[in-house]
Amino acid sequence: MKPDKKTKLKAPQLPEDFIPIQFDEKINAEKHYFNGVIQETSVVDQTFEHLEFEKMVFKKSVFQNVSFRDLQLTDVVFDSCDLSNVDFSGAIVHRTELHNCKLLGANLSEATFRNVLFDQCLAKYSSFAFANFKQVYFQDCSLQNADFYEIKHKQLDFSKCNLNETNFSGTELNKLDLRSCTFDHITVSLDKLNGCIVSSEQAVGFAKTLGLVVTEEE
């Protein structure tokens, strides 16, 4: 399924041929990696600094409890990767796609996202607090208990996502369309709710969140 046309995402610009790259604790010997594929690799409990990945594919790899400080991603695809508890805080992410990835507890706070697709990702308890989004699409993702506190966004779309218990407090929700998403409860700021697009059923849920008593008409 392609992203909605209104999102107009720019896809990663990838080469026809890739160079296999071995990713391990010695990767800090280089800072800029490009035209490569990192496949079926496992890295746990490591910290890397000032890395830049360009025109890269990460496939079926595991990066658990890994910190990438001052990370830059340009024209990158993550395919079926486990990024649980990864620290991408403050990262710059441009023309990047994540397909069928685990982002449980991932820290993506204060990151900058431009033309990014999250497709069928499991991102429960992830944090996007204070992040800046432009042309970003979440598709068929589980975002339960995720944190979108005080984010800035333009052309941010959610399609068929689980947003139950997600935190949007401090975030302007004007023009944000949540009609295809599911949730029993989300946290929002009343003064920033104006213009949010929801279904009639979701509107009832919002009313209950705001303390209103909703009853059937007699």
β-sheet strand percentage: 25-35%
Query: Mean pLDDT across all residues, rounded?
Result: 90
Radius of gyration over alpha carbons? 18 Å
N to C succession of SSEs? EEEEEEEEEEEEH
CATH homologous superfamily designation: E3 ubiquitin-protein ligase SopA
Low-confidence stretches: none
| Helix run count | 1
- CATH architecture term: 3 Solenoid
Helix content: under 10%
Q: Ends: how far apart?
A: 43 Å
How does the helix and strand content classify structurally?
A: mainly beta
Strand arrangement in the largest pleated sheet: 1-2-5-8-9-10-11-12
Note the main sheet. 8 strands, parallel
- CATH domain topology: Pectate Lyase C-like
How many DSSP-defined strands? Answer: 12
Question: How would you concisely characterize the structure shown here?
Answer:
The protein has one helix spanning 200-209; strands at 19-20, 32-39, 42-44, 47-49, 52-59, 62-64, 67-69, 72-79, 92-99, 112-119, 132-139, 152-159. The chain is mostly beta strands. The protein has a single domain, classed as E3 ubiquitin-protein ligase SopA (Pectate Lyase C-like).
